[in-house]
């Protein structure tokens, strides 16, 4: 979720994808994923104070949670390519790779965690302190309990899996950089199999062997397909890509009408009870959607498409700002819902997007630029220092 496909201006854009300018569609998918998550939370905000037709339309109320599965596949795709590229360039890349992931994830996450705590003190954001995981809150580590608890910034639960994926990539980058993606796929697959054999329902193992990790591996496989074909676009690949994109979108959409049990609740992933079902119903079609988009690679040159790419750039900020913004919307629902619950949902969604975009422009992007310059001033190896000196 936290990876990005852009020019190497900063670490949020540290990927090989945009050098060809062909995969801005991945940013469009990130925007769509963020919109889905925000939409679900906006419907939830309306439901806490009034009713909306959207909440009663088939299974729409929690459907947007599938945006997170799209995020996971995209992260596996982009970050595995970033890691492979980093391993090719430097013998000391594991530490640099992790430090870039840390600076990408933690500063904004910590800032918005403080915002949520401040809101709770003002009575705007109730927190069940007894169920908070302080390990997750401080360092995005899995809690020493079962089921695994969420951090104070509740949407941060997904970042626990993100960080675990990064740690495994970095470990193989240090041990056997030439085959780090292959080894990551094999290791995490083995861990998921171990969890299925010995029983997933115990501390730490519930994160380290959770089937939801397979969604990152789907992205890794897509990255390998992309890398081996050098991003070439042929009529056959474009047609295949369009077909897979349509198939993935259709299967995801079908669950809106057929139902998806309780897989939209984070707790059902953190306790492992619905993880396999979620991977099957949402993870597999998300993989098809991302694979299709990568093979298709439309130009994304129209004004709406470019705006979608901008939202994709800001998707991490939009995602993390959703909870604190929703809390403020719920507090002032007398203004948001005065024209009815459905209008309130739209206003809540627009508020989350606006706050997320503002956060991206005013906080996230300056932070990334700061750390980009910091990396230049503090080279990681003797070879890098000699280059900097010259």
What does this structure look like?
49% of the residues are buried. The radius of gyration is 20 Å and the shape is globular. It has one domain. It is mainly alpha-helical. It contains 17 helices and no strands. 70% of the residues lie in helices and 0% in strands. Helix 1 packs across helix 13 (303-313) and helix 14 (315-331) crosses helix 16 (341-377).
Question: What is the element layout, followed by pairings?
Answer:
Layout: H1 24-47, H2 60-63, H3 66-89, H4 93-121, H5 134-139, H6 157-175, H7 180-198, H8 205-208, H9 214-228, H10 235-258, H11 266-270, H12 275-296, H13 303-313, H14 315-331, H15 333-336, H16 341-377, H17 382-389
Q: Helix and strand succession?
A: HHHHHHHHHHHHHHHHH
Largest sheet, described in full?
none
Poorly predicted ranges: 4-22, 377-390
Radius of gyration: 20 Å
Cα-to-Cα separation, first versus last residue:
37 Å
Compute the average pLDDT: 88
């Amino acid at each position: 979720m936290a990876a990005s496909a852009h020019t190497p201006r900063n670490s949020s854009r540290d990927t090989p994808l945009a050098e060809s300018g062909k995969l801005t569609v991945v940013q469009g998918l990130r925007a769509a994923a963020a919109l889905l998550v925000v939409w679900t939370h906006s419907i939830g905000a309306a439901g806490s104070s009034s009713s909306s037709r959207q909440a009663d339309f088939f299974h729409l109320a929690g459907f947007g949670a599938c945006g997170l599965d799209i995020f996971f596949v995209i992260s596996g795709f982009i970050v595995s390519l970033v890691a492979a590229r980093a391993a090719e360039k430097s013998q000391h890349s594991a530490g640099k790779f992790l430090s870039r992931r840390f600076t990408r994830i933690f500063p904004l996450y910590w800032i918005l965690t403080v915002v949520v705590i401040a809101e709770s003190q003002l009575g705007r954001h109730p927190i069940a302190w007894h169920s908070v995981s302080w390990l997750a809150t401080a360092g995005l580590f899995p809690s020493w309990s079962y089921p695994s608890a969420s951090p104070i910034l509740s949407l941060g639960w997904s970042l626990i899996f993100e960080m675990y994926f990064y740690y495994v990539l970095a470990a193989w980058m240090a041990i056997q950089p030439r085959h780090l993606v292959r080894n990551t796929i094999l290791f995490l697959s083995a861990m998921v199999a171990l969890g299925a054999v010995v029983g997933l329902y115990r501390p730490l193992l519930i994160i380290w062997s959770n089937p939801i990790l397979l969604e990152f591996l789907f992205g890794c496989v897509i990255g390998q397909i992309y890398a081996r074909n050098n991003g070439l676009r042929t009529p056959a690949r474009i047609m295949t890509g369009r077909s897979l994109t349509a198939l993935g979108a259709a299967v995801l959409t079908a669950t809106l009408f057929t139902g998806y049990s309780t897989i939209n609740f984070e707790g059902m992933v953190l306790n492992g009870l619905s993880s396999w079902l979620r991977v099957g119903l949402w993870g597999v079609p998300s993989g098809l959607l991302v694979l299709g988009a990568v093979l298709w690679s439309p130009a994304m040159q129209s004004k709406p498409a470019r705006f979608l790419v901008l939202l994709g750039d800001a998707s991490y900020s939009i995602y993390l700002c959703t909870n604190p913004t929703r809390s403020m919307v719920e507090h002032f629902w007398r203004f948001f819902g005065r024209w009815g619950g459905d209008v309130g949902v739209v206003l809540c969604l627009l508020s989350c997007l606006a706050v997320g975009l503002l956060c991206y422009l005013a906080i996230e992007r300056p932070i990334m630029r700061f750390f980009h310059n910091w990396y230049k001033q503090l080279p990681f190896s003797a070879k890098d220092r000699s280059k900097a000196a010259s």
